[in-house]
Each structure stands twice: as C-alpha cells, then as structure tokens.
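Sample 1 of the test manifest.
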Amino acid sequence: MSMADQTAVILLSGGLDSVTLLALARSEGYQCHTLSFAYGQRHTAELAAAANLSTQYGAKSHRVVPIDLGSIGGSALTDHSLSVPVDGVTDQIPITYVPARNTIFLAYALAVCEVLEAQALFVGVNAVDYSGYPDCRPEFIAAFQTLANLATKAGVEGHGVEVKTPLIALSKAEIIKLGVGLGVDYSQTVSCYSADEQGRACGLCDSCRLRKQGFAQAGLVDPTRYQA
Amino acid sequence: MSMADQTAVILLSGGLDSVTLLALARSEGYQCHTLSFAYGQRHTAELAAAANLSTQYGAKSHRVVPIDLGSIGGSALTDHSLSVPVDGVTDQIPITYVPARNTIFLAYALAVCEVLEAQALFVGVNAVDYSGYPDCRPEFIAAFQTLANLATKAGVEGHGVEVKTPLIALSKAEIIKLGVGLGVDYSQTVSCYSADEQGRACGLCDSCRLRKQGFAQAGLVDPTRYQA
C-alpha cells in the first residue's frame, strides 16, 4: 500500500509544532484528517488558524471536538481566575498544565482513528522544549501506544494505529527549520497562551518565549505577529 | 492515613456493576466522588439513576461530563441510525461497541482524580461477562495504570492514583451477590441499552440478557423493571 492509500489523523492545535506536523504528514503522502479541540481556551484565534491551515494543506476533513475541561478545573489555561505566568520558564510543572489534557486529547484521537480506520496518528509533542508537562515525554507516548493496541477493535484485530511523534526529539529551532523547508508560513500559526482576537502574540508567556528563542536559534526572522 | 481520609473517584454509569462498585468503595470507607458521562446515550434514565444513587450512597460530589462521542460516530449506542442487536450475545465485537469509549472515560476520570488529589479510581469493568469489548480486559486496565503514572503531575511526584477494578474477575452472579450483601437495591439501577424514559428495561439486548442470567445464576429474584 502506498502512502497515498494511508490515512492519518493529525492533532492540530493551530500552533507552530502541529502545523509543521501536518506539513510533514502531507509531504509523506498521507491522506490527512485534522482534529482540534475546543476546550475553553482563553482565545479562539488558535482554532481559527487550525481550520484555515487544514484547508491550506489539503486535509480531507477537519473536526473540532468540544471538550469540557473547564468543568474539571485546575489550570490557568482554562480557569480564567488564575493568571498565566509571564516571568519565564522554570523547572516546575507550570500552572498552565491542564490535568491529563494530552491523555484526553489522545483518547479522542484514538476514537477518530478507529472510525476512519487510520494507520497513523500524528502528535506534535516535543520532549526538548516541553515546558515541564509530564504528558509530553517519550515514555508517556510509549505507554499510550501500548494502550491503543489494547483499547481498540483495530488493535485487537492486529492492524492498530501507529502513534507517530516525529518532532519529539527536535529543538524548537530544528522544528522551525524543518517547517520552513516544507514551505510552512509561520506567520499564520498561533502559539501564544494569551493571543488576542486577531491571533497576535503577547511575547511574554512560556510558549512565546520558547518560540521566539527557536527562531533566534534557527537564525531565521521571527514572522510572529506581536501585540503592540 | 485511614480510609476515611482517602478520596476515590467512582465511574458511575447508573448500571448494576457501577452501583455495586460505589457501594463497595463506600463500605471500605472512601470519600467518594462520582463521575458520569452524557455521551449521547439513547436514553437518560441511566444518568438519572446515577444522580439518585450518588445521593443515596453519600457521594461527596457527582459530576456529569458531556462528551461528544456522537460526532465521532460508529456505534449503535450513539448513532441512532444503527439498530441495537436483540438476537443474543456472540463472540464478535458487537455493533454497540463505542470506539475508544473506555479510553475517553478513563482519561476524563484521570483529570478529575488529579484535580481532587484522589488516591483511587474505581472502574466497574468486568472481564468475565464483558460482551466482547476490547477495553474491558485486564491488560487494557494494566496499560491504563502505566499511562496514568506517567501522564500526571501526581504520578510524576510519586503519589499517583491507583486504578481499582474489584469486579474484573467476578461473574455477573457474583457481582449481584456482592451488591445484595452490601444492601444494594438493584431495582433502581438501569443496565438496558434501550431503556424507556422510566428506566424500564427491554429484556432483549445483550446487557439485559447478561443481567437476567446473573440473577438466575445467583438464585435471586430479578427486581429489574421490564417494559410491557
């Protein structure tokens, strides 16, 4: 079976990493179906970017699954009574950590893979600049692959989905260089935790700092649109 | 720490198994928080039963998380254009299988455990009368325990949640005997895939057949309220 006959589900937040992931999967010839989550983000610019980029990169379908993380609580990204830290990246698990978020996202993605009979699930996790999230580590992904093989009809029948994380060992600079090589226009991606309605970045949150540093280390002009 | 200081999250569908589970966790002294899902079930009698039983068994809180499995599609339980089979239990994975359903449920439960800092997560899966679902098997639960230890802040800090499945090796008859011993009134639980608005069972679906057989094998009168 050629790659053109292979179906992939791509977790697409609309940020830098996941757009690079979509471009990569398309360059490998996969039929791509993108999946985004409306989980009570502080802004919807990221979701608008995901929809636009899905069309631009020829995704076969784009799903937005509403998930109610807000009712679970406990994170600055979904609980608007907590403040997003702007003082720089630390070694601690940050307050922007959403409890079990990637586990929930991957569980839904697995369901979509099963319905579409997809061979691959592309996840843009990154263990280098992972900002202290436990569910971005390689051992978490390996455990999810084991679970996926056991959880599904396809897995039981021996043709389960392969969880692919091609960005996991890359630095932000390497991801950016990969994407630029694939023709990605990063001015259209939104990484900021506090982007405004137009998708312009704050420049101060952890995500902005890691992205800014990535462009600097890649030796490339940062095309991010910043506020003020 | 005594059990009275321990917090447990209980996955509570409102059916026979999960109510037995709640009664068991309470009898062990846990502070219990119940969690149900509104996932486009054909009827809501099961959710009403879960809410009533949470109150009756002294749960500290009861959450209903709406999840949009219907948009994913592919199961007779959520896709109303497919028919629920009434011809008896077979060896095949049945059409009532919801893609990755237990994975999604457990992922949300893990998030709630993390927010509540729970020590235990009680899941009423059963590998004996498991009706062909891949995500009710012991190896699936073991894989989820591994994932949970890696996925969460609590797990990383070494005090992760223990996934408890005390019903997994019991027959339906043994579960019923356990529950009756704990004082459970099974007339208030709803197991049927096609229950009516009053929670009365069809008597013909896989779930009804397994339940009916359970009472017969336990040598107990079946208190289930049947339609017509």
